[in-house]
Amino acid sequence: MSAPNVYQIGIDLGGTKIESVLFDPQGSELLRERVPTPAGTVDDHKAIVDRVSRQVSAAAEKIPPGAAYTIGVCIPGIVDARTGLVQNANTTSLIGHPFRAELEARLGHPVGMENDANCFTLAEALQGAGRGYRMVFGIIMGTGCGGGLCLAGRLHSGLHGIAGEWGHFSIDPRGTTCFCGNRGCIETKISGTGVTRNHEERCGRRLRMEEIVDGYRQGDGQCRATFETFLEDFGRSVGGLISLLDPDAIVIGGGLSHIDELYSLGRERVRAYAFHPKAQTPILKNQLGDSAGIYGAAWAGL
Questions:
Q1: What pLDDT, on a 0 to 100 scale, did the predictor assign at position 185?
Q2: Where are the alpha helices (DSSP H) in the chain?
Q3: What does the pLDDT look like over 189-224, one tens digit per residue?
Q4: Helix 116-127 crosses helix 292-300 at what angle (to 10 degrees)?
Q5: Count of CB atoms within 10 A of residue 218's CB?
Q6: Mean pLDDT, the chain, as a whole number?
Q7: Average pLDDT value for residue range 265-289
Q8: Is 47 exposed, middle or buried, given 0-12, 13-18 or 19+ CB atoms closer than 10 A?
Q9: Of 77, 15, 13, whose CA–CA distance to 50 is shortest?
């Protein structure tokens, strides 16, 4: 995606790396740089502001003098629409700080800022697996579990900026306490972290998610029981999502998106829980991979 006569700078801020990209008005990539996310400094927050500002400035230097450009930043958290402060961020040093306003003051330029799940959803809706669908719900299933909603090519963030935070919908009031304070959130059920923890509690064996999947495929009884529960929870969670929003397509990203059974056995479980008796909602694997965040960040600045 590109905007006429506008260059686009995108920043993907992660827990371990900060990646920057520059697109020309035709959408061609002119620059891409990746540096470590500051950690363990006296003031990690200030160090991140400095590092991101430098990356934006380095990209801006490649833009012809006088040419218009936008800046978009993808963060692992949300900006409170009322206060402008970052909250619910995995990069905890950002929490409680006006990160967007700080960058705008440092750079002297407007900055668009979006949650990482929203950036993933926007990218996949515009140029990935969700292209051509009007309402796309993007799901990230990895260490955690999140989501975003894209309508007609534009993100819908909601009144509080939390639209799509599907991972923190409670489906089991007697379940594990989530970091958000609620019990039995979807994230505690179908994230990689949640499944591995549940397997250890049930079986006394600490296995990585990929080991559980391999064990299921090889007929290990304990892994099979854990994986069947995972599929059932996936069906309940996504089936409820379809009943609520009825999106035109669902795109899955994150490390667990590579589990092929989600698109066959998982889809069958979803149909069992969706309100429509023959739900045909496409459940699609992402196409952009690790690049979705940085693309979404650039487009979020428009």
A1: 94
A2: 44-60, 99-107, 116-127, 186-190, 192-203, 209-217, 221-245, 265-273, 292-300
A3: 999 999 999 999 999 999 999 999 999 999 999 999
A4: 90
A5: 9
A6: 92
A7: 95
A8: middle
A9: 13
Which of 1-15, 49-63, 91-105, 287-301 is predicted least confidently? 1-15
Helices 192-203/209-217 angle, 10° precision: 70
Identical fold, 6-116+291-300 and 129-286: yes
What tokens appear for 205 in the block? Answer: 């064996």
N-terminal to C-terminal alpha carbon distance within the chain: 10
Contact 73, 11 (CB under 8 A): yes
pLDDT value at position 41?
79
- Model confidence pLDDT, tens digit, residues 48-105: 999 999 999 999 999 999 999 999 999 988 898 889 999 887 788 899 999 999 999 9
Which residues touch 18 (CB under 8 Å, ≥6 apart)? 11, 12, 34, 35, 36, 37, 48, 51, 52, 55
- Find, among 288, 291, 302, the residue nearest to 136 by Cα: 288
CATH architecture of 129-286: 2-Layer Sandwich (3.30)
The domain ranges of the chain are 6-116+291-300, 129-286
- What CA–CA distance (Å, rounded) separates 237 from 190? 9
Q: How far apart are CA 195 and CA 207, in angstroms?
A: 9
Q: Residue 105 in contact with residue 56, Cβ under 8 Å? A: no
Burial class (CB in 10 A: 0-12, 13-18, 19+), 137: buried
Q: What is the rounded distance in angstroms from the CA atom of residue 25 to the CA atom of residue 72?
A: 15
The conformational region for residue 164 under phi > 0 = left, psi -120 to 50 = alpha, else beta, is left
**CATH code given to domain 6-116+291-300:** 3.30.420.40
